[in-house]
Amino acid sequence: MALDTNRIRKFLKEFDFKNLFVEELGWNYCSNQIEVVLDGSSFILSGVAEKHGMVSFTYSPFPNGQIPDYAIRRKIEKQAAKSVHEHIIIYADSAKTAQIWQWVKREAGKPTACREHPYHINQPGDSLIQKLQSIAFSLEEESLTIVEVAGRAKSAFDVEKVTKKFYDRFKNEHASFLKFIEGIPDDELHRWYASV
After folding, report:
1. pTM of the model
2. pLDDT given at position 181
């Protein structure tokens, strides 16, 4: 599905997550709210959009306008998972200069692994936009299940999988390229030249 990256970039810079998800990524409107209570303090997660059971939430900043630190974000996410198992939480500061996109990898028999992607309005946001393209849906994909939607989120946010895929492909391309290079008698130099 071809996306309008300029519109996505505009929505990111304007912190307009509803239009980003609904208008550009093909998700559905969602107005769920989850109240998370930690150490006597109440935090509200507001639903932005949902796709077949997976919900994206925004988190209002601390009273001081800041994004909570990593330890508190993890606690908030664990509480949210009790209400909505598969989700993305977008933390934003009140000055609307920074965002942290949080997704948690869940696999049976393994501990959860938190994946976060920071974004600042002074950045072009290309790496985040690339991830968002993986969780964009067309009208033809309306029959997807929560498992398929969560799988797309995993392919977008799970850096380990992307890194392993990159290096596996790099290794194969490197081996193929080695066969085409001629005239370098030293094996080590030959491998180095192929890497370059």
Report:
1. 0.76
2. 82
